[in-house]
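fyi for ur records
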Amino acid sequence: MIYLDNAATTRVNPVVLEAMQTTEQNNFFNANTLYQGGLKAASTINQARITLKHKLHGDSGQIIFTNTATQANHLIMDHCLRRPEHQLVITAGDHNSVYLYAKERNDRGYPVATIPLQKDGTVDITAIDNLVNDKTTLLIFSLVNSDIGTYQNAAAIVKAVRARNPRTHIHADAAQAFCKFDFDVTQLGLDSVTICGHKIHGPKGVGALWVRDGINIEPPHGTLNNAAIIGLATAAENFNCPKVEELHRYLVEHLPAGCRVNGINNNPFITNILLPNIFGETVLNALSAQDIYVGLGSACASHAKGNRTLDAMKLTSKEQKQVLRISLGMDNTIEDIKTFLNALQAILLAIRNHDIL
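which gave:
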């Protein structure tokens, strides 16, 4: 099996799994209890918070654990958008968790504005000047777009927002960026950031919200999942893809004739490919039959009729159906890429020759 859909989710790192199993057996106590076991669990969870803050360069902030990145995004939106006059600004390439929340709020009469994307997939920063105003309470953007992998210029976005309204809360959804890029939340001037475990070979069912000092958010109620939290921190400590640039370069340089990369390709972990007049789903199914797994785009929007990111980039409706998303992780090798490319070449040729329909 060759797995090239790591932006959807990742296989758990054995080191992470071992840490979680040890926690479940030896440090399973409820961290809210006051006896020795509970205090030990609370201490371990606090150490996980320190690890994650250090990874974000946000040591002075707070880490709130959630079940998912979606819950973390919703937590900050619920915190900021409390009155009908509070404006929410999102970007055209945001994750479904943000887009659907924004749509629901807009349907209820809340003002919502959407920053467009440019043809290369980057946020149109010049549009911020017209969309952000004195009523803009919250602006959200994805630090890495989950469909095409564009690594956005966070510093430029923050600068443009602050110039229009210094009081606007700026939140970055960094689920696809955490540990893959070394970004400093404090230096960038972000107010909050979403991260999660299952994009970096950690467990599903755990995420976190980093918020800067001075922002008081009520965390979700309930017993903390010790093992998942330790798994998230351990995954962050052990995430390492030293050859990802090499794999990405080989992938792009050896694409079959007629294929091209969509958007600015400044992120080696995610590459969105436009196929030559062939539906991506057809190719995905043919690859899947050979135990080669790729994506079509964000997994959380996989059943949607269109792709909002590609639509914002002005791809036609037909072109939006002709894409594959290749996303790399710690387990991938150059042999994986070569096998995929050979299979892709053979499938495209067979389809052109009407051997596969």
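The two ends are 24 Å apart (CA to CA). thats all i got for now
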